[in-house]
Design a protein that fits this description.
- The complex is a heterodimer.
- In chain A, the strands form 2 sheets. In chain A, strands 3, 4, 6, 8 and 9 form a 5-stranded antiparallel β-sheet that branches. In chain A, strands 1-5-7-2 form a 4-stranded mixed β-sheet, with helices on both faces.
- Chain A has a single domain (2-125), classed as Alpha-Beta Complex (Aldehyde Oxidoreductase, domain 3), CATH 3.90.1170.
- The longest helix of chain A is centred in the middle third of the chain and has 18 residues, at 52-69.
- In chain A, a hairpin with a 2-residue loop joins strand 3 (37-38) and strand 4.
- Chain A contains 3 helices and 9 strands, in the order E-H-E-E-E-H-E-E-E-H-E-E.
- Chain A is of the alpha+beta class.
- The relative contact order of chain A is 0.27.
- Chain A is elongated.
- By secondary structure, chain B is α+β, with helices and mostly antiparallel strands.
- Chain B has one domain (2-81): Beta-grasp domain (Ubiquitin-like (UB roll)).
- Chain B has a 5-stranded mixed β-sheet with strand order 2-1-5-3-4.
- The longest helix of chain B is centred in the middle third of the chain and has 11 residues, at 30-40.
- Classes of the chains: A alpha+beta, B alpha+beta.
- The interface between A and B is medium-sized, with 30 and 23 residues.
Chain lengths: 141, 85
């Protein structure tokens, strides 16, 4: 397992290589990428803030839950912080398992859980303004 | 007794700092510490309903008692409720 918060650009292949084991028949990968629009506004770039020590421990918690729920061979999660331009990758989740159904299901589940509980925040910056995007209060694990 | 306080995202912007300290009285809770911080940073007060607390990097209830040397984090809502993401 690998859990990381980093200011460096994210690349999927090293994470795929990390989770792929010889007994894995499937690797599902999710990339969260920066899009150029939100709520009808043209987004110029995003800025991510994080509580890194806690973020990695919450990531580990949701990954361990997923490993109990599905027969996975490995899980790895990375999130980037700082300023990200349109098209750059903010979130990478890679899940390996013997068969594809578990990898898809666990990857989908992990993306949802990540966004509910990991202490990382996104600020949208557009021409003439910016706003921190906040959902409901953080869910507890 | 003191606790270190960390602030993030909107709360850090409002307070103009990412880190501060609170002096702890006996049995002071996370929510008590937040109320003390609101005296110093009044802009935070509007967010008392949405803030969550973590102590030493784990979520806690607002009535969690702080101890000397604890790290209290004020956690604004994460963007996860935003299903469009």
């Amino acid at each position: 397992m690998l859990f990381e918060v980093t200011a460096d650009p994210l690349h999927p292949q090293p994470l795929i290589d990390h989770v792929r084991k010889d007994e894995s028949g499937a690797v599902a990968v999710f990339l969260g990428v920066v899009r150029d629009n939100s709520r009808g506004r043209r987004v110029l770039h995003l800025e991510y803030d994080a509580y890194p020590e806690m973020a990695t421990s919450v990531m580990r918690g949701i990954a361990e839950d997923a490993m109990e729920r599905w027969p996975l061979t490995d899980v790895a999660i990375q999130h980037r912080t700082g300023r990200l331009e349109i098209g750059e990758t903010s979130l990478l989740i890679a899940v390996s398992s013997s068969h594809r159904a578990e990898a898809f299901a666990a990857c989908h589940h992990l993306v949802d859980r990540f966004k509910e509980s990991v202490p990382i925040w996104k600020k949208e910056v557009w021409e003439g303004g910016e706003v921190w995007i906040e959902g409901g209060p953080v869910g507890r694990d | 007794m003191k606790a270190r306080v960390r602030l993030f995202a909107r709360l850090a912007d409002l307070a103009g700092t990412r880190e501060t300290e609170v002096e702890l009285g006996e049995g002071l809770s996370a929510a008590d510490a937040f109320r003390l911080l609101c005296q110093r940073f009044p802009e935070l007060a509007d967010h008392s309903d949405s803030v969550m607390y973590a102590v030493n990097a784990e979520y806690v209830n607002s009535d969690h008692s702080l101890r000397d040397g604890d790290e209290l984090a004020l956690i604004p809502p994460v963007s996860g409720g935003d299903r469009a993401v």
